[in-house]
Write a structure and sequence with these properties.
three-stranded mixed β-sheet; 9 strands
Length: about 110
């Protein structure tokens, strides 16, 4: 299994959010939940601490947390931060997803 990777642009965005909130050391949590229009959906959050069973990865001093239930769905995934005209968001490039929806947060395997 290949751990999901936090790309530099996503790490920079998390660091900027943490600095703006005055909470250095905030970690990005990536989880997979059932639901969404394609069957599964990505859920992002910011947390101060990791759970004992989290996979913990780091990019440019920023930590990403993934729980063990979500991990098989995210094998080899990359989390990036993408800015497009009229929108900016975290984006998951997931090699396991066989389809997705237009919103980019829902996928199927």
């Amino acid at each position: 299994m290949t751990a999901p990777m936090l790309m530099p642009a996503a790490a920079a965005r998390v660091a900027a959010i943490a600095a703006r909130q005055g909470k250095p050391g905030l970690k990005l949590r990536l989880a997979v939940d059932g639901g969404g229009c394609a069957g599964f959906q990505y859920r992002f959050g910011l947390e101060s601490d990791a759970a004992a069973d989290d996979l913990v990865t780091e990019t440019d001093g920023v930590t990403m947390l993934v729980d063990p239930v979500s991990l098989p769905f995210l094998d080899g995934a990359q989390v990036d931060f993408v800015e497009k005209i009229g929108a900016a968001a975290f984006e998951v490039k997931n090699p396991n997803a066989t389809s997705g929806c237009g919103c980019g947060t829902s996928f199927s395997i």
